[in-house]
Amino acid sequence: MHDVVIIGGGLYGSSTAYHLLRRDPGLDVCIVEPDPGFEHAASARSNGGVRILFSQAESIRMSQYGHAFYAAFPDAMAIDGEPAALDLFRRGYLIIATRPEQVEDMSANLELQRSLGCRVEAHDAESLSAAFPSLRTDDVRMAVHSPDDMWIDPYGATVGLLRKARAMGAALRRARVVGVDIDGGIARSVRLDDGTTLAGEWLVNATGAWAPELCRLVGFDVPVVPLPMMAYYFETRAEIDAFGVTIDQDAVGFRPEGAGYITLIQRLDIAGRFQWEADHDLFEERSWPRLAHRVPAFESLKVMSSYCCHYAMNRFDGNLLLGAWPGEPENFLIATGASGHGLQHAPAAGRALSELILDRAFCTLDLSRFGCARVVEDRPDPERGFTA
Ligand SMILES: Cc1cc2nc3c(=O)[nH]c(=O)nc-3n(C[C@H](O)[C@H](O)[C@H](O)COP(=O)(O)OP(=O)(O)OC[C@H]3O[C@@H](n4cnc5c(N)ncnc54)[C@H](O)[C@@H]3O)c2cc1C
User: Fold this and answer.
1) Which numbered atom of ligand 1 lies nearest the CA of 310?
2) Would the CB of 342 count as within 6 Å of ligand 1?
3) Which residue of 237, 307, 320, 377 is 20 to 30 Å from 354, comparing CA positions?
4) Which residue, 91, 84, 82, is CA-closest to 69?
5) How far is CA 39 from CA 4, 103, 187, 250, 276, in A?
6) Which protein residue has the closest C-alpha to ligand 1 atom 32?
7) Where on the phi/psi map is residue 117: left (φ > 0), alpha (ψ -120 to 50), or beta?
8) Residuewise pLDDT in 10s, the chain (388 residues)
9) Is 255 in the pocket of ligand 1 (CB under 6 A)?
10) Residue 309 C-alpha to ligand 1 middle, in angstroms?
């Protein structure tokens, strides 16, 4: 019998294992992961962005922990004195508003962000154009720039965290969970696709976009679906500003990647199914005109590669679902639905899950706002303003 069986070894699963073992190195933790090279996990294929530009204080605080966690990553995840490699680019986030209602949200969020100690600069069209001359700004009403925000290498973070959790004593079982045994209202064990069973005092469903399948095996439905996200890497010969993560709230986002840039298309029209290839025509029809509108130098660009992976999209309110589901086994915890902001919140969410297991309560940061009761009680609690 393991103390904790963690299903899924992406950032949420590994972060939970890491925080559990940091608190209690004697715990018996087992991670079940069929794909430890992370060919399909969102964690390894994400955009890697970490920002404090949220509207909910809990999300800002989670990102602040994410900032500290990833900045300390090389030393904190060192094994036998060998630092973990993690590329980190602290080049800021820029979010652009072109509509009055966006300005209203942005202004309210700015006040909260500053009250929580975040460095955020507000721009009008004129000051934005001076700061980023490559941008078209004649339709811009307001923009915010958070210079301390960053992106990281998501693959390095995912692999480094799992490796560290294993070095701290977590067992890794290369298998897929295909069943969950419940008895007397308690989750007892998971059944694996190799025919074996693993028993645990606690079971954690950290399977991201696959989490709904496992919840269904236990007997409840979460309002989470895989949302195909098509990612395109492109290059341009034009000289443009040193952008960080840049988001035009109406149209398109991009960030530098290697010698070029990366941009995403959300496929809401096919939400609910897994799709592993990007559609090239869609880039030309949808992204390119919008990119060239915001940065005229992008008139000339070349797509070099593309792929498709998935948000665990919470259709209810776009936010994380954390903890036990009301009326279901209290020792079956879930963490899913963080849509496009889960990488930056995985450190805080893993710490929170470790507290639910070791202390039966949130201790360092109260994340009850993201509890599953809000779904059952029909109290959606979405972010205000820009969401991902
Ligand atoms: C294109 C894209 C861009 C993104 N950009 C950002 C960003 O800039 N900033 C940000 O904060 N977040 C971003 N995100 C979101 C973030 O990547 C995710 O929220 C986060 O990585 C989810 O981590 P996870 O561990 O829950 O899921 P995953 O990383 O998907 O891991 C789940 C794991 O569970 C395993 N699994 C599945 N089924 C089973 C089973 N039955 N048994 C055992 N294991 C199983 C899978 O193999 C997988 O490894 C982005 C996501 C995408 C797709």
Assistant:
1) 53
2) yes
3) 377
4) 84
5) 25, 39, 29, 31, 11
6) 207
7) left
8) 999 999 999 999 999 999 999 999 999 999 999 999 999 999 999 999 999 999 999 999 999 999 999 999 999 999 999 999 999 999 999 999 999 999 999 999 999 999 999 999 999 999 999 999 999 999 999 999 999 999 999 999 999 999 999 999 999 999 999 999 999 999 999 999 999 999 999 999 999 999 999 999 999 999 999 999 999 999 999 999 999 999 999 879 999 999 999 999 999 999 999 999 999 999 999 999 999 999 999 999 999 999 999 999 999 999 999 999 999 999 999 999 999 999 999 999 999 999 999 999 999 999 999 999 999 999 999 999 999 9
9) no
10) 9
Q: What amino acid is encoded at 388 in this protein?
A: A
In this structure, the chain runs to a length of 388
User: Which two tokens mark 299?
Assistant: 């008139």
> Global pTM?
0.97
Closest among 330, 311, 313 to 373, alpha carbons compared: 330
Q: What is the identity of the amino acid at 173?
A: R
